[in-house]
């Protein structure tokens, strides 16, 4: 009886230890999405990027150790219409020939309490690098980790929309970015 | 002998000319903006066009209610066939001044661009984004718009014919400052 009890406790401890050593790393691209909303003459126009590559390491028990790198294939943009899609890959907008990808590299993650966190990092688009702060929530859905967050990107900080397009009364400076990332856990060897 | 010509009521005259001006502004604007390549100017002109159209649709409601509750002046003497054409034109004009902006509003929604009145008041989308439906509505909007402007032309020709050839008061009784 006593031996059994000890064995059970040991097993529980081991399990708890294992749970702590789980990191959400394997991003499920099919279930993840990267969307944005631009405002044209006050009209919210939804869009998205179909192709992006996210690398992630997130242990909810140790959020400050988390890191992420996001690479977005800018040519995969859907800006709401064919006309817009043809336009935004061009020189005045993303200039995808010269700058095919946008990149976000996190420099730190903060816990904000509850399931809320905040990622801080460097966003590079079209040769311009700016600091970005993106609050997000984390929840577990079965085995997977689900990250939902967003931030407002000022397009003029990155020269997205030059020449006549720098007229922010036609297309607003503020672009609302929303991400939804689903990642599978990977057991990490306990240190 | 000559009793003063019966005139249209003030609100009927105001609505008539206001909507006339808006239609005559929206039609060439629509033709012009459609040919432009995507630019901030194009986005602005599309918005102005939609705001004008929504204004016509908004004005249509009180106008038709006023028309249904206030008899217009009796038609002046004219051959029966002319009267029939005039009446038919009026009915079609009412129908089209409703259908043209309505088809534009629906097209805008189907193409994924909500109409935001004056850039501040979002007008609800009655239908969701649907590429095929958007293209169908675009064709309908075009055909209906050309029909409307053609009827406006016919209506104008009729009014001028009464004014210049028949020298009657058909046109004058609709003029804002006539007697």
Describe this structure in words.
The complex is a heterodimer of chains A (191) and B (179). In chain A, 14% of the residues lie in helices and 51% in strands. Chain A is built from 2 helices and 11 strands; from the N terminus they run H-E-E-E-E-E-E-H-E-E-E-E-E. Chain A has helices at 2-20, 82-88; strands spanning 22-27, 33-40, 43-49, 52-57, 67-73, 77-78, 101-113, 116-125, 128-141, 144-154, 174-187. In chain A, strands 1, 2, 3, 4, 5, 6, 7, 8, 9, 10 and 11 form an 11-stranded antiparallel sheet that branches. The longest helix of chain A has 19 residues, at 2-20. Mean pLDDT of chain A is 89; it is low at 10-19. Chain B is 68% helix and 2% strand. Chain B has 4 helices and 2 strands. In chain B, a hairpin with a 3-residue loop joins strand 1 (116-117) and strand 2. In chain B, helix 1 (10-35) packs antiparallel against helix 2, helix 2 crosses helix 3 (80-110) and helix 3 (80-110) runs antiparallel to helix 4. The radius of gyration of chain B is 19 Å and the shape is elongated. The interface between A and B is medium-sized, with 19 and 17 residues.
Defining key terms:
heterodimer, A: 191 residues, mainly beta, Lipocalin, 11-stranded antiparallel sheet, 2 helices, 11 strands, 51% strand, B: 179 residues, mainly alpha, Fumarate Reductase Cytochrome B subunit, two-stranded antiparallel ribbon, elongated
Q: Would you summarize the structure shown here?
A:
The complex is a heterodimer of chains A (191) and B (179). By secondary structure, chain A is mainly beta. Helix content of chain A is 14%, strand content 51%.
Number of domains of chain A: 1
Largest sheet of chain B, in brief, is: 2 strands, antiparallel
Residue fraction in strands of chain A:
over 45%
> What characteristic shape of chain A results from the CA principal axes?
elongated
Task: Count the domains of chain B.
Answer: 1
What order do the SSEs of chain B take from the amino end to the carboxyl end, as H and E?
A: HHHEEH
Report the helical percentage of chain B: 55-70%
The order of strands across the largest sheet of chain B is: 1-2
CATH architecture assignment name of chain A: Beta Barrel
- The name of the CATH topology of chain B is Fumarate Reductase Cytochrome B subunit
